[in-house]
Amino acid sequence: MLVVDSACAAPVTALTTVTLVGLSPPTNVNSLLPVVNNDSSANSQIIALMFRPLIWIGTDLKIDWKQSIAQKITVSPDRRQFTIRLKPWLWSDGKPVTAEDTLACLRMIQRFGARYANDGMGGMPDIIDKAVALNERTLQITLKRPVNPIWFELNGLSQLIPVPAWRWKKYSIDTLFKLQDKAGMVSVVDGPYKLARFMPGRSIDFVRNPQYSGAQPHLQQLRFKMYTSDSGAFWALKSGVIQAGMIPHYLYAARWMVKNLNTCVSNGGYGFNYVTLNFTNPKVAFLRDVKVRQALALAVNQT
After folding, report:
1. 0.85 surpassed by pTM
2. What is the mean pLDDT of residues 196-215?
3. Band of residue 270 on the pLDDT scale cut at 50, 70, 90
4. With contact defined as beta carbons under 8 Å apart, do 24 and 230 qualify?
5. Of 194, 190, 196, nearest in space to 213 by CA
6. Domains of the chain by start residue, with CATH
7. DSSP string for the chain
8. 52 near 65, Cβ under 8 Å?
9. Are strands 262-263 and 70-75 parallel, antiparallel or unpaired?
10. Which of 58, 92, 262, 291 could form a disulfide linkage to 64, CB 3.0–4.6 angstroms apart?
11. pLDDT tens-digit profile of 282-300?
12. Which residues of 119-136 are buried (b: 16+ CB within 10 A; e: fewer)?
């Protein structure tokens, strides 16, 4: 899994041993821990290499059960209670990933409060009335009100990432926030990769996790090198210093300079445009006309 839209300058056969990926601004990595990070694209995807989510949402906006730690979710008839059964998943030290590890993540979200980057999304965490572990591999979450199950699964449950509860329980949420860039905090993981070395602002190295409970990744080693500019990353790609990196739009015409270029084209990045109309502004008379408001709404709905 690469954290940038990438162009690859090396033969595919070479990628099974080691890949060096160039990260250019604003994709700097400054956190290794779930929940307490700023939820930037770079941080989130780096963390996903080490910690797998309870449920993995695919590009088709459906749960990818093959990639998920959850085995199944059962919803009560009143649509308030979600019972989640976990797969027999292991941490890198051989201990099982448990329901309590998942609840530990929920408690982190609750204690982090308004600082949590996704606070309020999917109603989390205020929508939860009760959360308990029924056994080692089963947890049950009861909500304060009935919900659309698909909405809550995709937006709420998807935020839960099992964490090594027995290792982190001695830390307060404020301490975890302060330690989020410390390599020692992620010595035990359940994802496809383990952290080998982290030099903030410079590079981050991973090795394959032999205890990973999912399908073993093709890359044995993965290294991300951080650059201070897009052009710096491009020239490193051109010279072969890195094997994968982002080609910025203003250098796209120069892509021919990269030998043996294999390209993955994305949807153009994360972003959206919107307009907010203040219909109650007393100084704008025409907005008081319902026909004008209807016309504006109709026009907006066509975009």
Report:
1. no
2. 94
3. low
4. yes
5. 190
6. 1-25+227-271 (no CATH), 70-164 (3.90.76.10), 276-303 (no CATH)
7. --SS--EE-S-GGGGGTEEEEEE-TT------SSSSS---HHHHHHHHHHS--SS-B-TTSSB-TTT-SEEEEEE-TTS-EEEEEEP--B-TTSPBP-HHHHHHHHHHHHHHGGGSTTTTGGGTTTTEEEEEEEETTEEEEEESS---HHHHHHHTGGG-----HHHHTTS-HHHHHHTTT-GGGGSS--SSEEEEEEETTTEEEEEE-TT-SSPPPS-SEEEEEE-SSHHHHHHHHHHTS-SEE---GGGGGGGGGSTT-EE---SS-S--------TT-TT-GGGG-HHHHHHHHHHHHT-
8. no
9. unpaired
10. 58
11. 888 888 888 988 888 888 7
12. eeebbbbebbeebeeeee
AA identity, residue 218: H
Dist CA 181 CA 33 (whole Å): 7
Please report, as a single letter, which amino acid is at residue 247: I
pLDDT digits (tens, 9 = 90+) for 114-163: 999 999 999 999 999 999 999 999 999 999 999 999 999 999 999 999 99
pLDDT in tens, 26-77: 667 899 999 999 988 889 989 999 999 999 999 888 999 999 999 999 999 9
